[in-house]
Amino acid sequence: MKNILVSGSNGQLGSELRELCNFYDSFNFYFTDIEDLDISDKHQLDFYVKSNKIDYFINCAAYTAVDKAETDITNAFSINADSLKYISEVCIANKVFLIHISTDYVFDGSKNTPYNEEDAVCPISEYGKSKLQGEEYVKASGVKALIIRTSWLYSSYGHNFVKTILKLSKERDSLTVVFDQTGSLTYAKDLAIAILDLINDNKLEAVSFDIVNYSNEGVSSWYDVAFEIANLSGSKCIINPIETHEYPNAVAKRPTYSVLNKRKIKNNYGIIIPHWSVSLKACLDKLLGLY
Ligand SMILES: NC(=O)c1ccc[n+]([C@@H]2O[C@H](COP(=O)([O-])OP(=O)(O)OC[C@H]3O[C@@H](n4cnc5c(N)ncnc54)[C@H](OP(=O)(O)O)[C@@H]3O)[C@@H](O)[C@H]2O)c1
Fold this sequence. Notes:
Layout: E1 2-7, H1 12-20, E2 27-31, H2 42-51, E3 56-59, H3 73-93, E4 97-103, H4 126-141, E5 145-150, E6 153-154, H5 161-171, E7 174-178, E8 182-183, E9 186-187, H6 188-200, E10 209-214, E11 220-221, H7 222-232, E12 238-242, H8 263-269, H9 276-287
Parallel strand pairs: 1-2, 1-3, 3-4, 4-5, 5-10, 6-9, 7-12
Antiparallel strand pairs: 8-11
Helix pairs in contact: 1-6, 2-3, 3-4, 5-7, 7-9
The protein binds NADP nicotinamide-adenine-dinucleotide phosphate.
The site of NADP nicotinamide-adenine-dinucleotide phosphate has 24 residues, from helix 1 and strand 4.
């Protein structure tokens, strides 16, 4: 049996992992969130990992409030960066393989072709900077680790763009959504399956350190996603495209282009990735009670 620790397991990705756990008989899961295991507490981490003989640590815990992080910088860096120093040290001491989730926000979005793992990083928000610092701590520590950069994550769990648009498109006659940010949605369930398959198929045993990209296939703007949500849910709500500067609520800067190239995870790790529209439909069917 492999002992797998999931931190931040009340969040979107952690909840998807929890839902899948019955399909992986050879894993013994330890699902935790801040009340059981605070990743910013090195002593707690060490005690938990040691006493449960953990083999794989999937770190889903993070400070993910992108706009709030612009002013709450100390807390964002404490959770997204400093904690990764502690997690890495504890994983090394206890011979644990670390799977850490990072973000497209480590890039500035100035490219217009998909980002490879080797492209220059240059975050433009405090959240992005804190996540990059976390990546750098993991890499510098020498821990055996896989960092997975993902983008535009959503799930039937938690708060996210998909659930917000689904709700608002039922309540309103029209909505405005930005069309000048281009990226790729990631259904957290698909990412959760990919992570568990990597462990189950022993694809990580020969890995010392690697960074890979993962999002769903295809490319869209937020406007396209909102349009598809209204369409698939049968809403009559009219979705109107606007430019980012017309949207007043965003405090943090977002990359205008953050499509991730998934060639590496597909070719080197054998991961098959669904198209965003197929996964979006699956999530909407779940949210609308259609299966
Ligand atoms: N959401 C996105 O669009 C997106 C895009 C790219 C990458 N990512 C990355 O993907 C990963 C998973 O994201 P997600 O959307 O699933 O995140 P999420 O839903 O915000 O879940 C994160 C979980 O971590 C918990 N947490 C916060 N501080 C903690 C601490 N000190 N110790 C233990 N747990 C703590 C949170 O609790 P509270 O809710 O109580 O704070 C929450 O339950 C993160 O690394 C994130 O940076 C996300």
